[in-house]
Amino acid sequence: MTNSDAAPGIVTFTPTSLTDIDPVNPDTASEHTPSWLTNMSAEADGINSIRNSTVKLCMPFTDAVTIGWVVRSPVTAHITRDQSTGELHVDVEDAPEDSDIVTPIAPIGPQSKQNSSFPTPDCLIETGWEIDTPDGTSMLFAPPMNRVETRFTPASVLVDTDSYEKSISVPVVLTGNSMTIERGDVLAQLIPISRETRLDPPKIQSYGRESRQEQLQRRISKTVDARTGFYRRDMWVKKPGFQVLTDKHALEQTRSTPGETPTTAPAEATDGRDPAQPRSFLDSDTDQAFFCKEAFDGEIPQVKPAGEYIPDGYFDEMRQETRINADQPTVEWMQAAMNLGSIIPLGVDVSIRRDENGTVQASAVDEGRFHVMDPRKVGNDHPFAPLTPINMIGHWAPVLKHGYSNLYIPPLNHFQQHHQCFAGIVESDRYFSTVNIPGVLRPGLSEVTLHKGMAVTQAIPFHRQSLINTAYINND
Questions:
Q1: How much is the average pLDDT of 2-22?
Q2: Residue 159: phi, psi to the nearest 5?
Q3: CA atoms within 13 A on the CB side of 257
Q4: What b/e readout covers 70-104, taking b as 16+ CB neighbours within 10 angstroms?
């Protein structure tokens, strides 16, 4: 199937040759929701407060878990690294010795000792799928969000799948020196990105104590404190349920049923420039903005386009390894992903320490810019329980034009070594508040200082009604 055949509003997965090995079908991301989250109670035991809900009721958190699809490893691969040379040895089960389903890349280690490390991928794992999307739609491959994977981390790539007509391989950074990736293991989470609804870079603005922005933020803050579930009940917009079709008859019904739009979110009423809505703060020629209080203007690092955080020479050095771009433009795809949206930086230095009992403590010059969350909100079944998130309370309040949400995700291809934020999706056209960014100290790390200006999260705006939610497995 060629890209010109892609059905409107449908993502098509077509299998390609994998040396007589059948690829593993893509799934919806929701099918791979972690069991610790699925089995979690909505309320944390022992917390006597209206704020006793667990992350299961955090709609930004769960939206990030369930958005899009996942692609999975078509093979079982045993990978070992020679600790003296860094070279990889790969043994793929049930594949010829000359198989290139897993392609090692010459090792180039982390480029930084800071939280963002910027290594080169260790290998490429072919998915066995060509992906076709409608004109103007690309596909973001990202690390599966809010999940635990200790063996490897996929590099993020943004592929123009409306024009690229080959099988796509996922670049991977390995965590240890010896591991097995099983057939069917999730490699990456896939999110369709409409290029036609991309927004211009945000304006950076401040507001005073008597401004409408200050009044709305105070009102929302008081409501959040007084009413449990306020965001879930009043601000959240239900996203479309994602699906994978394998039956051609079902596909034809989806294509031809008049008057229905199963591939988009439910229609949302437009409200012009309602002064009670944060989007009324935007100038007529502005699609998005980040606001901070006047007291912080010039004192804290500004939100910047995400591409400005790419280290000088990072991709030039990567291109010297010819295998990374031999069969696909991996480097260019990685760069495209890193250019999406904006980076929100840390506003103050924060020191984090974990004692011998696992208790996490944090300190900063401005103690009001973070709080240590109760580990019971993440539950006892999490693989790293008790897990104590630290909520970084930001200085910046984003506002998007009507119909847009922000995907907050760990900065793409930064491969953060010490501290990593959770992912979330927030209706920033409806909810005016500073960005609160919960994250965790990496397992095994006892102490670290996160420095002012460090990249904390990447904000990627997307148009809710342009979000494709139907995929078809084309086995013809």
A1: 73
A2: -110, 130
A3: 11
A4: bbbbbbbbebbbeeeeeebebebeebeeebbbbbb
Answer yes or no: is pLDDT of 368 > 50.
yes
Tell me the chain's radius of gyration from C-alpha atoms. Answer: 22
Q: Cα-Cα-Cα-Cα dihedral of 192, 198, 201, 202, to 10°?
A: -90
Strand ranges in 175-235 using DSSP code E only, listed in sequence order: 178-181, 186-194, 203-207
Tell me the whole-structure pTM to 2 decimals: 0.92
CATH fold of the domain at 203-236+273-464:
Deoxyuridine 5'-Triphosphate Nucleotidohydrolase; Chain A (2.70.40)
Per-residue pLDDT tens over the stretch 280-319: 899 888 999 999 999 998 899 999 999 999 999 999 989 9
CATH superfamily of the 3-198+467-473 domain: Deoxyuridine triphosphatase (dUTPase) (2.70.40.10)
The pLDDT of residue 264: 39
CA distance 160 to 432: 33
Long-range contacts of 357-366 (CB under 8 A, 24+ apart): 358/386, 358/388, 359/388, 360/388, 360/390, 360/441, 362/390
Q: Residue 276 has what pLDDT?
A: 59
